[in-house]
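Q: Study each token:
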Amino acid sequence: MSATAMPELMGTHREWFEARGFKGDMDIDQFCVRLEQAHHEATHGGGELEGPPE
């Protein structure tokens, strides 16, 4: 995946990873996947799939 495929990593996030050695063969794009917002939130346990607690 290239930087153009993950525009949200441009700027400060990309700079943070590059400063810690994620360049060239170890570019951060080699470790990223694209997720829809709902899938991203689900991995963090976001949302109330069964409704609010009683």
